[in-house]
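Input chain follows. Return structure tokens only.
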Amino acid sequence: MCTAKCSRCIAVTLFPLAAISIICSIVLFFPGGDIKYAKEGHITEEVKYMGGLIGGGIMVLISALYIQCTGEEGCCGNRCGMFFSIIFAGVAVFGALLSMALAVLALRNGPLCKYEGQWTTPFNNSDLDYLNNPELWEKCTEPERIVQFNTGLFITLIATNSLQAFLCNIQMINGFFGCLCGTCIKK
């Protein structure tokens, strides 16, 4: 496979991953599908940073658009274009790692929920032990099933961002070979 085809394959794979990251980030603002928690500001702190929207979403999406252009014949389908694809892939890796770090931090701190009548993060110092103990989840009385909600979406973000970082690292290697050998579009 030539470097141009590899770039197109990577870009096509990055588009749905960026969409998943954006969707997860937006859905996290509405625990249980209810907007009242977002209105009242009772959202887990890491959700407010929008790592999935900005890092794993927009940064990866913009990079994927350019990476796809390097696989096309024209102004970007040359050695210089492949060099810039390395830079854009690096930006996407940074965005994916940013989103992943925020998701891991959110899992580490646990969700913001109503516990004993107060809004707090009751699992903040639990070293992720709460994830293996469903009886502890009942401590959070509101929003309903917030532990499962946050855990599922943040684990989805971690998996998605891991794939994004992996694919963009491959594109960085592909871009390096594209700089050295050319894109072989016309061959």
